[in-house]
Amino acid sequence: MNPDMPKTALPQGAVRLHDWGVIRAAGADARSFLHGQLTQDTLHLDAGQARLAGYCSPKGRLLASFVIWSRGNEEVLLACTADLLPAVLKRLSMFVLRAKCKVSDASADVPLWGLAGDAARAALGSSATAAVWSRADANGADLIRLPDAVVSGAALPRWLWAGTQAPALPALDADDWRWLEVHSGVARVVGATVEQFVPQMVNLELVGGVNFQKGCYPGQEVVARSQYRGTLKRRAQIVGSPVALQPGQEVFHDADPGQPAGMVVLAGTWAGMHHAALVELKLSVLGSGSLHAGSGDGPPLTVATLPYAIPTDAA
Predict the structure, then answer these.
(1) In this predicted model, what pLDDT tens digit does every residue of 73-89 receive, in sequence order?
(2) What pTM does this model have?
(3) How wide is the angle at C-alpha 126 spanned by C-alphas 65 and 24, nearest 5°?
(4) 20-109+187-193 domain in CATH 3.90.1680.10?
């Protein structure tokens, strides 16, 4: 993208997120049950908050990632990638046991929309919550402020609208939204990347998706060990590409073209020509040589700037 391109030229509007779905956890024990399953604190999730969370296997690998928020003390909603929802719902149901909690697919009841740009901010008016991961009521819907997409220094605001009757805005293409998602630096696990990443490998803890003070959850020991013992050797980076990329696609470095150096986490294309991806990479390949998509002699990739810093002691 041209670094001098004005913010108003970036994709803006509203898009129905058909590739997302929603799980509902309802009951007196909904919060405590989820607290023991996710990387995030759900016991202290109040009505004005949303949070990012991961769901890990016992080996600490991400089975799913969620945007979570509550509707009262006995209902928590979890937005995730639609192609993961059936398997995740089945797995969560297996561990409910005697807890007073019922988990169900609420996708039909809670349609999701992505809103982006100053046009969305204007349409939302006073409902346009300022703080990232805040939640507000908006005409009977849940409005969640997502992290900005940052492109060439320009920060584009984004929201998740959960409910019917989204604001009347210009139509935003689904791939444009994914392109903005990439530029937020926030990973979302999809079907092609299940069990590929420990949370820190996709920077989940840097964007508020891991609470290290909460109690145990599946994979907690692995996640904690990665954080405190200096074993982390991979991180997510934003890359530009001359061709469209796909989640799960391998990335190679010219110094070792026979072995993959990383994997595409999320990918998007704006206006059919600006291709970008969030890619999990070996830290050792950064700063030298060249990266390529699909093979050692595949299309070249250019590392871009993340909207947040990676700690130097982890880099």
Answers:
(1) 899 999 999 999 999 99
(2) 0.93
(3) 30
(4) no
